[in-house]
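Hi V.,

You were right to ask for the full record rather than a summary. Here it is.
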Amino acid sequence: MSVPKQLDSALYTLVHNENVATFNQERPPQGLIDYCGGDFRGLDLRATRLEGASHALGRLSSSSSSP
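Predicted structure:
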């Protein structure tokens, strides 16, 4: 398994900095967002809209609901 890394993407930076509201506004309404290999350890992504996103373990199909 490869080591997670910081990705060179404005959307990834928003997610990694836990700027969820801005990410949810700026993400494309359709299409695939490629986060393969990205470092998401320790992040709270529960309110992040991740449908259509991919990551190192496969495709994310839906986001978690807000707390």
